[in-house]
Design brief:
By secondary structure, the protein is α+β, with helices and mostly antiparallel strands. The chain is built from 15 helices and twelve strands. The protein is 51% helix and 9% strand. A hairpin with a 4-residue loop joins strand 1 (38-41) and strand 2 (46-49). The longest helix has 31 residues, at 223-253. The radius of gyration is 21 Å and the shape is globular.
């Protein structure tokens, strides 16, 4: 099945500026939902599906909206992997990799180490009275925790964070920048080497990690398959918790009433996590390719059509979420799309939820007294394929 690289007949063509999308994609998405819920965008080279209901429907039809997209940036960056596979291959790889990331395993195997790492990182900065909280805390925390869960004891948190940035840049490289591809290739080679070393070690001595789980899977997984899947997990496994942490902390620091509420009622940190992930989705969209002709959003798309499920837009759909552009801790519960859906629901969702809402936010706000944003700091939201804060400069009392 060849990929169709033009608009399907009858689909509106909408010009979007990628630089403007990076700055703030939400106004463009609101306009698309209103006027062209399925639109061909030449600068992105695919049809954008922007309404919640249509995205949910597409996610429930993986046999039509295939993850095996030809020319996928993720495939180019990391090679064949479960995120770009359909069943039965997807199910085989997922069953091998997933057990260490389930809620009970997160609680019993990893939570204590996550908490130790958070305290160690805060120990380094607490006496300073100021920090760039993403670079100094959130990113190294997410990277160190991910190394632990994956079983990459031969990689530092800095390695993991660097590799993640390089690969995520490749995965969002719609501008086809050759320097971005070069950095992504260097990262993937380093990961392959690290994974090969650990796969050999856990073959002799299992350790409960994702690599160990894949090596000892009942349905055999080749080392090359383990390497490719660890690459894609490193890509998303750092940026999602890092970006939800950063956006949520930044948002609460600008809303004293909401912050006071979560500090008084620690159970509401979980609600803050879900609302942050809905409001500013760390992953904004992912690609699909149609295996057959299919009608959606009032248009029949032919087989081979390239589609982006714009979950960031679905999470702001006014027909599902009242006052969707507002951050609201009291929002009535409706499932958001930030972790995807269907068979590809994010494998790391429970890890991210626990490390951010149970550990990172409560510790940061309890240990750094009088935490506040640095006025005039150049902290801003950036990105549309992946979206988060560029930095988070804060200050607090040290006596």
């Amino acid at each position: 099945m060849s990929a169709l690289t033009t608009a399907a007949p009858g689909v509106p063509v909408v010009e979007l500026d990628l630089a403007e999308l990076r700055r703030d994609p939400y106004p463009a998405y609101a306009e698309l939902r209103r006027t062209a819920p399925l639109a061909w965008v030449p600068s992105i080279g695919r049809h954008l599906l922007t309404r919640y209901e249509d995205i949910v429907r597409a996610e429930k039809l993986p046999e039509v909206f295939s993850s095996r997209e030809q020319g996928s940036l993720l495939l180019r960056t990391v090679g064949p992997n479960m995120l770009r596979e359909d069943d039965p291959d997807h199910r085989r790889l997922r069953a091998a990799a997933e057990p260490p990331t389930r809620p009970r395993q997160v609680r019993d195997l990893w939570a204590a180490a996550f908490e130790r790492t958070a305290h160690e990182l805060l120990d380094r900065i607490e006496g300073r009275g100021e920090a760039a909280l993403i670079a100094d805390f959130a990113e190294p925390l997410a990277a160190a925790n991910l190394a632990l869960v994956l079983g990459l004891h031969n990689a530092s948190a800095d390695d993991i964070a660097d590799w993640s940035r390089a690969m995520m840049a490749g995965n969002g490289n719609y501008a086809d920048d050759p320097d971005v591809w070069l950095r992504a290739e260097q990262a993937t080679r380093a990961i392959e080497e690290a994974v090969a070393g650990r796969a050999e070690a856990v073959r002799r001595e299992p350790d409960g990690s994702v690599i160990s789980s894949m090596v000892h899977a009942a349905d055999p997984v080749e080392v090359a398959e383990i390497q490719n899947n660890i690459k894609f997990i490193i890509g998303g496994g750092v940026n999602e918790p890092r970006d939800v942490f950063g956006v949520g902390a930044w948002t609460l620091l600008q809303r004293p009433e909401a912050l006071e509420r979560v500090l008084k009622d620690p159970a509401s940190w979980k609600r803050a996590f879900e609302e942050t992930a809905r409001w500013i989705s760390p992953i904004g969209m992912y690609p699909r390719q149609l295996t057959q002709d299919h009608e959606i959003a009032g248009v029949t798309l032919p087989a081979g059509s390239r589609v982006a499920l714009v979950i960031a837009s679905g999470n702001r759909d006014e027909s599902v979420f009242e006052r969707a552009d507002e951050f609201d801790l009291d929002r009535p519960h409706r499932p958001h799309l930030a972790f995807g859906g269907g068979p590809h629901f994010c494998m790391g969702a429970w890890v991210a939820r626990h490390e951010v809402s149970t550990i990172a936010w409560p510790l940061v706000f309890s240990r750094l007294k009088g935490l506040r944003l640095v006025e005039g700091a150049a902290d801003r939201l950036d990105g549309w394929v992946f979206r988060g804060l560029t930095s988070l400069h804060v200050t607090w009392q040290t006596h």
